[in-house]
């Protein structure tokens, strides 16, 4: 039976608990490392507005749209762009 190796990067990365504790002990006591900048927060906000807008508008308009659901998605996207 093969022994599983620890991956250092990727979606299934694994780290030792000792290494995680050592990384948290490096800075000031109780401080957090800044990982998200202004551009990241802006992109997250725009994505949330567009995503929520598309689903809300489609949810309300799908009863009237019928087979024209694709056109409804396009109109909802345009509406969200203007609101963002």
Fold and architecture overview:
With 84 residues, the chain is an all-alpha fold. It has helices at residues 17-24, 38-65, 69-83. Helix 2 (38-65) packs antiparallel against helix 3. The longest helix is centred in the middle third of the chain and has 28 residues, at 38-65. The chain is elongated, with a radius of gyration of 22 Å. The protein starts with 16 loop residues before the first helix and ends with a helix. 1% of the residues are buried. The model has no long low-confidence stretch (mean pLDDT 75).
Any chance you could write out the topology, listing elements then pairs?
Elements: H1 17-24, H2 38-65, H3 69-83
Helix pairs in contact: 2-3
Spatial gap, N to C terminus:
55 Å
Strand fraction equals under 5%
Strand count, sense and closure of the main sheet?
none
Number of strands: 0
Distinct helical segment count: 3
Gyration radius, rounded: 22 Å
Order of helices and strands: HHH
Summed over residues and divided by their number, the pLDDT gives a mean of 75
**Which structural class should the secondary elements be placed in?**
mainly alpha
Based on the model shown, name its key terms:
84 residues; mainly alpha; 3 helices
């Amino acid at each position: 039976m093969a022994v599983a190796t620890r991956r250092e990067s990727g979606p299934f990365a694994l780290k030792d608990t000792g290494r995680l504790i050592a990384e948290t002990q490096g800075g000031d006591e109780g401080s957090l490392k800044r990982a998200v900048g202004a551009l990241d927060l802006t992109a997250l906000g725009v994505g949330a507005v567009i995503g929520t807008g598309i689903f809300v508008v489609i949810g309300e308009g799908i009863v009237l749209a019928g087979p024209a659901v694709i056109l409804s998605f396009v109109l909802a996207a345009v509406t969200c762009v203007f609101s963002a």
